[in-house]
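Hi team,

Below is the intake form for Lytic transglycosylase domain-containing protein from Rheinheimera muenzenbergensis. Please confirm the fields before the structure is written into the shared record.

FORM ID: S-0412
PROTEIN: Lytic transglycosylase domain-containing protein
ORGANISM: Rheinheimera muenzenbergensis
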Amino acid sequence: MLRGAVVICCIGVACSGIAQENTADTKKQLKLKPGQVLHQAAPAANSKPSAQIAVYKSVKADGTAFFSDRQPLNRPYQLLRFDCFACDPVSKINWHTVPLYVKPYNRIIAKAATEHQLDPALIRAVIHAESSFRPQVISKKGAVGLMQLMPQTSATLGVQDANHPEQNINAGSRYLAQLLKQHNNDLTLALAAYNAGPGNVKRYNGIPPFAETQAYVERVVILHKRYQQQS
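The structure came back. Fields below:
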């Protein structure tokens, strides 16, 4: 699954990077719309930059979508750039103050929460961590959409279009509910399984000793509590 913020840029449109952390004394909660982000402060000179990949999406004359790691010539394109976000162990973001997405997909999230008996704040926290509320995201591993569903997971859950917000959120919520049940409603274990796979949680009899997974679990828990406070 994708573990980061993604920027989708069309020709002639300036797009910004990952959300900027706020100062600790910020009192008013910032609220974002889908696709709206704030610039992060520049990293320290000695800090190691996150790995990046670039994927270009264009549409051929016959309507076929084409993905490449090279910029298309003579036709419009979208640039999908991946920067590690919720699971970067050395992230400089303050997860206690990073702006929240409190309104996008309210109806869809509420419906999925009711159907799968989940806290809507948890669904929103996972979407925030996985895709930063960008429905067209495709990770370098092939995970797709708001809740970053892997193709095999999508197939198992009967998803026809993983980019479709309602299908993605419903399937991702269903999968999350299954993981919670599988791990006796232990949220941290369910989140670890969502990130690293149930097999790794079973193998290590707990949260796997992966820096990415440990950071992911910690940050989703923080986001979950913050979204609960906004509901």
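SUMMARY LINE: The domain at 4-230 is CATH 1.10.530.10 (Lysozyme).

Thanks, M.
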